[in-house]
Amino acid sequence: MALGIKKEDTVVVLTGKEQGKRGRVIAIFPKQGRLLVERVNMIKKHMKPNQQYKQGGIIEMEASLESSNVMLVCPKCDTPTRVGNQMLEDGRKIRACKKCKEVMD
Fold this sequence. Notes:
41% strand; 105 residues; mainly beta; SH3 type barrels
């Protein structure tokens, strides 16, 4: 997954039934190329009672999205943008917004 998206980033959904919704990234699954976004792509799952869910029943939870269907939102210009990499003087590689050139890390 070469999108440059990390946990806690804000993303916007580009396609599908959730198109246009924004949310914070909860988890990333790079091998599958998928990610979880907070309060986006909600599903209902039938759960038996266990340690975590004492009552059991129907639980509403997030389902993963394909990473190609989301785009990172720049915190400064507040628009969906592509991410570029820049090298600093001390040799560190950082993420930068392609539109406003603002550093994201």
